[in-house]
Amino acid sequence: MRLNHDYVRSILLFIEQETTYKQGTQIPVFHNEIRYTVILKNKDFEDCDQQELAYALELLIKEGFIECSRQPHFNNGNLNLANIIGLTWKGHELLDNIRDNTIWTAVKQKASKIGGFSLTILASTAKDVANALMSDPNAIQNFMQGIENIFH
Q: Would the pTM of this model clear 0.90, i.e. be above it?
């Protein structure tokens, strides 16, 4: 199964937007939960390949980018139950590093030149590009020019 990196980004953005705290009577504030099936069936994802979307969601949970209220339940490797309450620190860090469309485009272009990348490489590359951009406003342009030079 192919990992669709655009789905990874879209899922992280969706979870960040949709998870909140609620006021309670017994507990003053508590997480609302989103069942993983809500993401799969949400209108924001209706044009997505459902198998690739489910795969991206499963990997994000397994790799610790998404926080669940209790241990997710897998049966024969398939996600059966996950009540999502938000992103982990690692999930927020990844999302913050790929939120910007310019950075996201640069990371994807680099990946397309080398034929793909893992979630770990995605996170690492996005972090490197974001760090470079913080210290040099021309970093994205230099990064893109460097990619072109390598492959020409």
A: no
